[in-house]
């Protein structure tokens, strides 16, 4: 199985409702797992609160789009070399297969590529950050 096939499988798994996945081929085995968090229901207060002065409404942050996640634990790099321009910037249109960033693991640079034609909404990791498996790196929307 190639790295690209593994990355695509991981991306599909991340977007699916599955919590575990095991793939075995001849001398290769891959096991994926994720935890699902369930939001707790709000508990109604027992006593009625005293009326407080009206506060300004808080703007709700709505994150639209889908995220590209780290396929492995490693160091995130937004650019191909120190001091170079980053691979992508927010608002940039990219084509399927374009390199978006790098994740270095065990002295190997792993290219993270666009899964489809899309627009980069936000780069969520900082250059040089240690990223975990499944951590959101780049938020995008198809288009």
Class per helix and strand makeup: mainly beta
Report the mean per-residue pLDDT as an integer.
Answer: 78
**Number of helices, counting only DSSP H or I runs of 4 residues or more:** 1
Major sheet details: 4 strands, antiparallel
CATH topology of the largest domain: OB fold (Dihydrolipoamide Acetyltransferase, E2P)
Quick recap:
Helices cover 9% and strands 35% of the residues.
Structural summary, described in words:
With about 140 residues, the protein is mainly beta. The chain has two domains: about 1-35, no CATH class; about 65-143, RNA polymerase II/Efflux pump adaptor protein, barrel-sandwich hybrid domain (OB fold (Dihydrolipoamide Acetyltransferase, E2P), Beta Barrel), CATH 2.40.50. The chain has one helix at about 5-15, and strands spanning about 20-25, 30-35, 65-70, 75, 95, 100-105, 110-115, 120-125, 130, 135-140. Strands 3-10-8-5 form a four-stranded antiparallel beta sheet, with no helix packed on it. A four-stranded antiparallel beta sheet has the order 7-6-4-9, with no helix packed on it. Strand 1 (about 20-25) and strand 2 form a beta hairpin. The two termini are about 30 Å apart. The model is unreliable at about 50-65 (pLDDT under 50).
